[in-house]
């Protein structure tokens, strides 16, 4: 392996480790505390955490919260969750780049996951604004948001699978080198 390639891999490893630390810090000190303003005990605290949702689930989620909680949820979706998607995409992408020696094609999956997360957030905001303005929720918006949400979870699962395959390949490669020495 050339010195330039080794140096590049080290930089990617540092980026992967740093972004993993940033991911943990962001969840612990920003995402979880900020989301307290709309959480309810014993209730689902985000529509995006389920694989899919229907009109009744969305209606129940919205009606269980006060106006200030829903305003907080909108802020969460438009600011804090958008940043979170960038952080987790950076983390997953850097690990993929490290494990697969800069094969950028694999980055498509986590990037599509991030874009679908943002799109799903936007559809939730549209549902919320519709609900706050008229008291009703569009079935079409719910279906679109739920479909995008399901796609997000498929991309997330594929991202984990890509990383898992990369780890298995790295372990096999390490074991082969150690038995050869």
| Total beta strands | 0
Helical residues, percent: over 70%
The quaternary organization reads as single chain
**How many H/I helices?**
5
What letter string, H or E per element, gives the SSE order?
HHHHH
Instruction: Specify Rg, calculated over alpha carbons.
Output: 20 Å
- How much of the sequence is in beta strands? under 5%
Query: Largest beta sheet, briefly?
Result: none
Low-confidence stretches: none
- Average pLDDT value? 94
Shape: elongated
Summary?
The chain is an all-alpha fold.
If you had to describe this structure to a student in words, what would you say it looks like?
The chain is mainly α and about 180 residues long. The protein has five helices and no strands. Helix 1 runs antiparallel to helix 3, helix 3 runs antiparallel to helix 4 and helix 3 packs parallel to helix 5 (about 140-180). The longest helix has about 40 residues, at about 140-180. It is elongated. The chain starts with a helix and ends with a helix.
Describe how the helices and strands are arranged.
Layout: H1 3-34, H2 55-63, H3 67-99, H4 108-134, H5 139-180
Helix pairs in contact: 1-3, 3-4, 3-5, 4-5
Which labels suit this protein?
181 residues, mainly alpha
């Amino acid at each position: 392996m050339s010195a330039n390639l080794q140096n590049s891999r080290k930089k990617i490893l540092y980026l992967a480790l740093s972004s993993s630390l940033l991911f943990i810090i962001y969840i612990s000190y920003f995402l979880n505390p900020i989301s307290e303003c709309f959480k309810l005990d014993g209730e689902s605290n985000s529509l995006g955490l389920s694989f899919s949702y229907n009109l009744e689930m969305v209606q129940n989620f919205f009606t269980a919260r006060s106006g200030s909680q829903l305003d907080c949820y909108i802020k969460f979706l438009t600011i804090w969750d958008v940043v979170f998607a960038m952080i987790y995409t950076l983390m997953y992408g850097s690990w993929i780049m490290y494990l697969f020696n800069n094969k950028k094609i694999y980055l498509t999956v986590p990037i599509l996951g991030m874009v679908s997360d943002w799109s799903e957030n936007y559809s939730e905001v549209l549902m919320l604004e519709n609900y706050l303005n008229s008291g009703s929720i569009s079935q079409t918006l719910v279906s679109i948001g739920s479909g995008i949400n399901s796609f997000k979870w498929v991309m997330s699962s594929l991202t984990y699978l890509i990383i898992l395959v990369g780890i298995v390949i790295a372990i096999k490669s390490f074991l082969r080198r150690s038995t050869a020495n």
